[in-house]
Amino acid sequence: MVTYIFTLLLIVCNFFIIFTLEPVKLGILLPSNSKFPFSIVKVVPAIDLALEHVNRSGLLPNHILIKNVRDSNCSETIGPLEAIDLYVKREVNVFIGPVCDYAVAPVARFAPYWSIPVISAGAPVKAFDDKSEYKTLTRIQGSYGKNADFLWEITRTFNWSTIGLLFNDNHKVEMGKTDNFFTMEPIYHMFKEKTGYEPYFKAFDEKYPLTYDIEDLLYTASMNARIVVLCASADSVRDILIKAHELNFDNGEYVFLNIDLFSSKNDSEKPWYRAGDTDERNSKAMKAYEALMTVTLRKPTSKEYKNFSMEVKRRAKEKNVNFTYGEEEVNSFVGAFHDAVILYALALNETLAANKSITDGAEITNRMWNRTFEGIYRQTIAANGDI
Amino acid sequence: MVTYIFTLLLIVCNFFIIFTLEPVKLGILLPSNSKFPFSIVKVVPAIDLALEHVNRSGLLPNHILIKNVRDSNCSETIGPLEAIDLYVKREVNVFIGPVCDYAVAPVARFAPYWSIPVISAGAPVKAFDDKSEYKTLTRIQGSYGKNADFLWEITRTFNWSTIGLLFNDNHKVEMGKTDNFFTMEPIYHMFKEKTGYEPYFKAFDEKYPLTYDIEDLLYTASMNARIVVLCASADSVRDILIKAHELNFDNGEYVFLNIDLFSSKNDSEKPWYRAGDTDERNSKAMKAYEALMTVTLRKPTSKEYKNFSMEVKRRAKEKNVNFTYGEEEVNSFVGAFHDAVILYALALNETLAANKSITDGAEITNRMWNRTFEGIYRQTIAANGDI
């Protein structure tokens, strides 16, 4: 009987605590389709970890973080509509995501007018550098602009002068530009600005393989540059490199760089191999890849990161028995979104301590910028709100 | 005393009628900046005329049309935000506007999910042809696609085979494409599709006159085509034509076509003349313009149209004493938006008669398509929702 009363008391107390805590609502906007490395099933377990950590830590003693997860569908329509719905129903204090450029653009345009911060591990296109338009957007993972900086440094290190760009893009203007185009865009502009010459570039539309000839692409590129930067699907890159091998372009005269920022580890560990292809082509591909340097996002190798990764995968499996993570370690979006929650909680804590409100999105955003903090990664957000 | 009671009764009756009528809310999304031919001050008086006409006509006996006017700012941010606000506050049954492509795109993407029709005299870019995405969008004025059809017909009539395109566009990708680009895009694709050859094209950025040389532009174009299609600001077109005159390109060997769909009449009646320029250049320009054919939107010449135009201008002046309309007749957007209200009222009447609801945006949209009706213009909306 005493145990019973005690248990009841405990439950009542818990309810009391929960109901007196002010909720902090994370509006999670990610795609449900698990083909994306930043899908709900892959990322939300990491957000849960961060959320539980913050709630346990006492960082926000009068608040409790809760999440409202919506399917952004990686869509310029559904993403913003879900954001609008969260806003209208007062179910969001901070948007976590979207990732896809076309989905995040309207959300990050509207958010300053709603005074709501947006934290994304995506939104990599250069347009989002302009924080006079995207006032409350914080980017917690590398952007295409940062990648261009990095590529520039590589070419300085090896003393390479002339680069050429080969990339996949949509022929049809109404389809918009591809991620590959947006990756190349700041590289082109950076080299043009720094060196004065215009890098050679050629786009092909890999949806229509009959509209271009890889041999032509390679010959023309080779007449303009010794350093060829590729940005396309893994299969297209492989086809180009096999052809390069056949044409003896992997003789040391040429260097191929592949920009593949967001691939999962499985994809990029043995990128030359295709189970369905012939031994001969796989062998050619393997040789050709020796002339290839791939630029991708760094992942930590620490024990903490391994544990984090294991726990995220365990939770993902627990919630979705039919889902297999498949990657050795979780991809870089997973850690970045975990850290987005930590960063927001730190900034909110300071904002409240300064007697400002949770509804002051500009203030909270301001406190997220120009700071270093410890999440899964040791993160530094620059004064411009980007990592 | 009797008069007093009678008047009181009349007022009470009026109130009673007004309050028993169900409001039909037109959400008007137009820019307040009067530099636009489709600005609030220019267009709303015409919408008022249409609205009063419908309310008097008995077409919707149990309803009363009212308008909620918002400043779209011709902006991809403010336009959608105002649309969202109207939707959330239940102040809109139909969106009239926006016009600007980047402003109307998100609104027309969201509207099907809100089940609200959108009628625009703008949204001319080819992307809006795709009604599987923009399900409730009706375009009541010519699109760039229609313009390409027309240009194709002209070239067939005169038996011209090879065209070249010279147009203004933004160098910087992050600034998006210009209206001039979007005008040229379907022309390029249509000629490529119909003839198999790719029309010569060259973009210049008129914001940076030092980045291009008009003489070069003309020489290169002349090596590729005898029919040169121009699309740029009136001043750029004039500069190009003066240079063409100096180079003797107006000797009958070449034809210049100028696409200038939305200019007001004042702009286009004496387009060669600039008060601030020298007599010599004005005279050169006048001669050069003899080799120029300008494609623009047709306006009716009927007495009804003249009366409509006068009444719109009178009302505009009445409401904004500081505003001078300045055009001989109101521009084509004004008539088109008037007709948008008539079209919506006709479709709503039929929808209600069929026992369907005013909230059934798909049904109302469906009844606006594939029909001919009398507004200020005699309008025919095709089965695809475009004029």
From TrEMBL, chains A, B:
Domain Receptor ligand binding region: 45-376
Tagged with keyword Transmembrane helix: yes
InterPro entries per UniProt: ANF_lig-bd_rcpt (IPR001828), ANP_Clearance_Receptor (IPR052612), ANPR/GUC (IPR001170), Peripla_BP_I (IPR028082)
Membrane topology annotation: Single-pass type I membrane protein
Gene3D superfamilies, alphabetized: 3.40.50.2300
Superkingdom to which the source organism belongs: Eukaryota
CDD domains per UniProt: PBP1_NPR-like
Any single Gene Ontology cellular-component annotation: membrane
GO biological process, alphabetically ordered: signal transduction
GO MF term set: peptide hormone binding; signaling receptor activity
Residue spans crossing the bilayer: 6-30
Keywords: Glycoprotein, Membrane, Receptor, Signal, Transmembrane, Transmembrane helix
Subcellular location: Membrane
Protein name from the UniProt record: Atrial natriuretic peptide clearance receptor
Lineage, opening ranks: Eukaryota, Metazoa, Spiralia, Lophotrochozoa, Mollusca
